[in-house]
Design goal:
The complex is a heterodimer of chains A (about 290) and B (about 260). Chain A has about 290 residues and is an alpha/beta fold. Chain A folds into 2 domains: about 210 residues, 3-Layer(aba) Sandwich (Rossmann fold), CATH 3.40.50.300; about 60 residues, no CATH class. Chain A is built from 8 helices and 9 strands. In chain A, helix 2 packs parallel to helix 4, helix 3 crosses helix 4 and helix 6 packs across helix 8. The radius of gyration of chain A is 19 Å and the shape is globular. Chain B has about 260 residues and is mainly alpha-helical. Chain B has a single domain, classed as MetI-like fold (Orthogonal Bundle). Helix content of chain B is about 80%, strand content about 0%. Chain B contains 11 helices and no strands. The chains are: A alpha/beta (about 290), B mainly alpha (about 260). At the A-B interface, helix 2 of A face helix 7 and helix 8 of B.
Chain lengths: ~290, ~260
């Protein structure tokens, strides 16, 4: 149980400003404990995807620090000028413990084998020339790891065991998204980052996939950081919802949801679900209003 | 069925009209031969024509291979940086817009070996579509997949082999289809420039000689063989493209 009081993600004043001076994100302070299911919700353009990309190491923060899986505070130091990061105009930031990854903003953790991070994008983002199995195996191939039975297991988890040899274009949008999730699961991640993964799907498919993700989270004791603009999705999935307000993005409110509450179809019909949705809706409205009047 | 029958029917009608016009107007054979004259020449001169075709095809295929290798290499250089591409692209375009007829004499004088000269001319004609398409293809990578590769710490080499090259394939094959025809055209043009003092063996030489001798049926027969060779080259390129892209790319899935 030592995992539960560990910090999966910690952002200290990590903000984002684009080269043209546009401020995308105010400095963000955020801590995600291991085992949480945290959802970021907000209108389009509030920087929630940017925040997720910073956590993934795909986008360097303009100032502040991003830490994953730390028990004690580790300082992140900027390296001396060694090249320009085109998207910020800032010096590249590299954690002190990053070793040799000069120029790369992807962190290597102190115990990197045990702290894998997976990312699920808005689009399935599959290689059209590769079969489902080869798509799922990609992260293992890139790491030079032996796949063994892990691809089959990952496909089994998302219910696509029979489609290993199919090509992405032969699958529906929902099935492609499942492949994308299987590809994330194949590395047995401890932190799963999901950026509006089901935004392009119909509501029926989305509800089913939400259910599956919630099951995977519970069964595999994952830590999930999830981005959505759907109130229902946020309430159904999360143990904690962070409400963001736009331009520049900041965290305007927080709603903690009873983690013991079972999340099933009955929950969707319940008064509690409606109550949480209403509260979240009110928070979103006041976040938008507060920003407009400011 | 109609897909094959319809064009064949059009061809037959066109030949019939041609034949009718020539016979009804008593057009002399040395001006316009009838399709029957041409068919006759095809059969009678088949040894000559096939020999000439093989010579021309050999040059065209060598030129296509050369254009492929250099074109792909140049494209790889181009995608290394925008600066490199901007510095070199104007010269690639210069090469493309220079009429091959105007530099073929130079190349033929410079290169000692005539076959080599012809190959160089034809390769120049076929080069640009390969460069342009492959460069475009190597750049047309799904940004989401690039992020994924970055996220998993992929090396430059892994990204090239597993992502950029497969992404570029459809573009590359589009270029190959265009270049296959251009290589043949370039070969024939270069053979023409080399003229009767040239190899005395390619299809262009046969056309030149037939023209000088007013042997119109043979001239038409040689023309027919050239076009047939062009179609065959295109079909070969399409077939290779289909084999490679079958199953995943839109351009080939619909027709498979």
């Amino acid at each position: 149980m030592g995992d539960c009081d560990r910090i999966a993600v910690r952002l200290c004043g990590a903000g984002k400003t684009y080269p043209d001076g546009l401020k995308a994100l105010e400095p963000i302070h955020l801590t995600v404990q291991a085992g949480e299911f945290v959802t970021l919700i907000g209108p389009s353009g509030c920087g929630k995807s940017t925040l997720l990309r910073m956590v993934a190491g795909l986008s360097a923060p303009a100032g502040g620090t991003v830490e994953l899986w730390t028990t004690q505070s580790l300082t992140l130091e900027r390296e001396p000028e060694s090249g320009s990061k085109a998207d910020t105009g800032e010096k590249p930031w590299v954690p002190a413990f990053a070793g040799t990854t000069e120029g790369s903003s992807f962190r290597r953790m102190p115990e990197s084998g045990a702290s894998r991070t997976a990312f699920v994008f808005q689009q399935p983002t599959l290689m059209p020339w590769a079969s489902v199995a080869r798509n799922v195996r990609l992260p293992l191939d890139l790491a030079g790891m032996n796949a063994g039975t892990r691809v089959d297991e990952a496909l089994d988890l998302v219910g696509l065991a029979d489609f290993a040899n199919a090509y992405p274009r032969q699958l529906s949008g929902g099935m492609q998204m499942r492949v994308s999730i299987a590809r994330a699961l194949v590395i047995e991640p401890r932190l799963l980052l999901m950026d509006e993964p089901f935004g392009a799907l119909d509501e029926i498919t989305r509800n089913r996939l939400d259910h599956d993700v919630r099951e995977l989270w519970a069964r595999h004791r994952l830590t999930v950081l999830f981005v959505t603009h759907s109130i229902y999705e946020a309430v159904f999935l999360s143990t904690r919802v962070l409400v963001m307000s736009p331009r520049p993005g900041r965290i305007a409110g927080e709603l903690r949801l009873d983690p013991a509450q079972p999340r099933d179809e009955a929950f969707r019909q319940s008064a509690r679900f409606a109550d949480w949705c209403n509260r979240l809706s009110t928070m979103l409205a006041s976040a938008a209003h507060g920003n407009a009047s400011a | 069925m109609a897909r094959i029958l319809a064009p064949i029917l059009v061809g037959i009608i066109a030949l019939a009209v041609w034949h009718a016009l020539v016979t009804l107007n008593d057009v002399p054979v040395y001006l316009v031969p009838s399709p029957l004259n041409v068919a006759e020449a095809l059969v009678q001169d088949r040894a000559l024509l096939v020999g000439a075709l093989l010579v021309t095809l050999k040059v065209a295929l060598l030129a296509l291979a050369l254009a492929l290798v250099t074109g792909v290499l140049i494209a790889f250089v181009f995608v290394q940086s925008r600066l490199v591409e901007r510095s070199l692209l104007p010269y690639a375009i210069l090469l493309q817009v220079t009429p091959i007829v105007s530099i073929a004499p130079l190349i033929i004088i410079w290169a000692k070996n005539l076959t080599l000269a012809l190959v160089l001319c034809a390769a120049m004609a076929a080069l640009f579509p390969i460069i342009a398409n492959t460069t475009q293809g190597l750049r047309s990578v799904d940004p989401g997949l690039l992020d994924l590769f970055r996220l998993h710490d992929a090396s430059r080499w892994q990204t090239l082999v597993r992502l950029r090259i497969p992404s570029a394939l459809p573009y590359f094959f589009a270029g190959l289809k265009v270049s296959s025809g251009l290589a043949l055209i370039g070969t024939v043009v270069a053979e023409f420039v080399a003229g009767t003092g040239g190899s005395r063996s390619g299809l262009a030489y046969q056309i030149l000689m037939a023209g000088i001798n007013l042997n119109m049926p043979r001239l038409f027969a040689a023309l027919f063989v050239i076009t047939l060779a062009g179609v065959a080259l295109y079909a070969l390129a399409s077939w290779i493209a289909r084999l490679s892209l079958r199953g995943w790319h839109e351009s080939e899935v619909a027709s498979a």
